Amino acid sequence: MPVAIITGASKGLGRALAEALAARGWDLVLDARTEGVLSEAAGAVSAYGTRVTAVPGDVTAAGHRAELVAAARKLGGIDLLVNNASALGAEPLVRLEELSLEGFGRALEVNVVAALGLVQEALPLLRASEAGTVIAVSSDAAAEAYETWGGYGASKAALDHLAAVLAEEEPALRVWAVDPGDMATDLYAAAVPDDGDPRPTPASVVPAFLRLLDERPVSGRYAAPALLEGQR
User: Fold this and answer.
1) Quick one: three-class SS letters along 27-88?
2) At what angle do helices 114-128 and 150-169 cross, to 10 degrees?
3) CB atoms closer than 10 angstroms to residue 69
4) C-alpha pair distances (Å), 55 with each of 33, 124, 143, 188
């Protein structure tokens, strides 16, 4: 069975993607910081009958990243790495003049540095896979300027660029930066708590990710809304 590592997998998009992959027969290594919530999610995902290993911890810790890769190795390797774990930098979001450098540093550490560290740890197994794939979960804030989204958007823009360079350096892999679009997640609620407008569920976005895995287009940046509409 193919094996995937998904960070930030206890809820939201990470959990929805884990459930969809498990339904297709994937074995999974799931990461999140909160052990209880992650255990509950792993239990639900394992109901599909595949092997699911929950590894609680912080992706900014090198030892934790090594644990994730070691768990995947025990399952047979790594065919897919999804860097989904994210930090906002401030909750709720604030203008750049108010953004603490400590908060901005945390966003960069989680969204960029840890993502690269996990890629580096996983590369030997990804290269050994016949369909090695890296997905960097991006944001429209990486490409568009929205008030208060500067710190988070800058971190996601940096992640996009890392993904683009990785694709150049590792042509045998597929490397996709994917903007999932608006979603009703805890992350968004923490970012803009006063915004009560309805948004799509994470599960409704997952078919865009599955389309990429099915069709395996060239490495690059993709927007889930366009994929869901049948575009590229």
Assistant:
1) EEEEEECCHHHHHHHHHHHHCCCCCEEEEECCCCCHHHHHHHHHHHHHHCCCCEEEECCCCC
2) 30
3) 23
4) 9, 20, 32, 24
Of 110, 137, 118, the C-alpha closest to 206 is 137
What Cα–Cα distance (Å) separates residue 23 from each residue in 17, 41, 48, 155, 231?
Answer: 10, 14, 6, 32, 25
Catalytic residues: 138, 152, 156
Whether 142 contacts 153, CB under 8 Å: yes
What is the chain's pLDDT, residue by residue, as a tens digit (232 residues)? 999 999 999 999 999 999 999 999 999 999 999 999 999 999 999 999 999 999 999 999 999 999 999 999 999 999 999 999 999 999 999 999 999 999 999 999 999 999 999 999 999 999 999 999 999 999 999 999 999 999 999 999 999 999 999 999 999 999 999 999 989 999 999 999 998 899 999 999 999 999 999 999 999 999 999 999 975 5
Amino acid at 205: V
Structure tokens at 229: 């509409």
